[in-house]
Design brief:
Number of helices: 3
Oligomer: single chain
Helix content: 25-40%
Structural class: alpha+beta
Radius of gyration: 13 Å
Strand order of the largest sheet: 4-3-5
Number of strands: 5
Order of helices and strands: EEEEEHHH
Shape: globular
Length: 90
């Protein structure tokens, strides 16, 4: 019996993947929405595949809005996109 791998659903494409393959987007108590690369910070998390494509889909289908039950300003998507690009270039 192997250890059960926690699966999370991407708010962009809706696919289920293991947490390790995904990026956690975090809404903190203070309000800012950030990428949580460690996956350990406190707050409400939503998961995205590690592709900019899924970020675009989540933006289009309002996946993050649904997860966090709030409207998400354009700047947040822009900063998430920048963070994604930085991660991809590493």
């Amino acid at each position: 019996m192997g250890k059960k791998i926690p699966l999370r659903q991407c708010v962009g494409c809706g696919e289920m993947k293991s947490k390790k393959e995904m990026m956690r987007v975090l809404k903190t108590a203070q309000g800012p929405i950030v990428l949580d690369a460690t996956g350990k910070k406190n707050g409400r998390g939503a998961y995205l595949c590690l592709s900019e494509e899924c970020l675009k889909k989540a933006r289009k289908n309002k996946g993050l809005e649904r997860s966090f039950k709030m409207s998400i300003p354009e700047e947040v998507y822009e900063s998430l996109k920048k963070e994604f690009e930085e991660l991809e270039s590493r």
